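Regression test case RT-17, inverse folding.

Input:
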């Protein structure tokens, strides 16, 4: 069983910063990609940023230049540094681990989600 545990959410003023962390635990052979998604009230879940095992990154346009995603492959951990936060960044942020292999079987992969952490940007 694989679990993703997020931390680092909270309340911050506009212009402030937060750093989210997500650690994947369990019997993991490898993880191809990890990422962060968010869901605001009344809206669909959307991609924020993703990173592959060889550090290729992808960002939602509105967070490009403000957010930085990084990962520690040895620890199966992904981070999201969020700077210059805006009220519209308020949402529940979810960690995702994609194409997770529990054995060396290349074709048997899984996708996992964390429980979510609340980020509120407000004065």
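Golden output:
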């Amino acid at each position: 069983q694989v679990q993703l545990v997020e931390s680092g959410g909270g309340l911050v003023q506009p212009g402030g910063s937060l750093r989210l962390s997500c650690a994947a635990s369990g019997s993991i052979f490898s993880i191809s990609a990890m990422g962060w998604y968010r869901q605001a009230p009344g809206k669909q879940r959307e991609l924020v940023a993703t990173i592959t095992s060889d550090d290729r990154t992808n960002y939602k346009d509105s967070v490009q230049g403000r957010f930085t995603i990084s990962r520690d492959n040895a620890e199966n951990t992904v981070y999201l540094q969020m700077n210059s936060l805006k009220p519209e960044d308020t949402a529940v942020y979810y960690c995702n681990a994609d194409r997770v292999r529990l054995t060396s079987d290349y074709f048997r992969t899984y996708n996992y989600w964390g429980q979510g952490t609340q980020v509120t940007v407000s004065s």
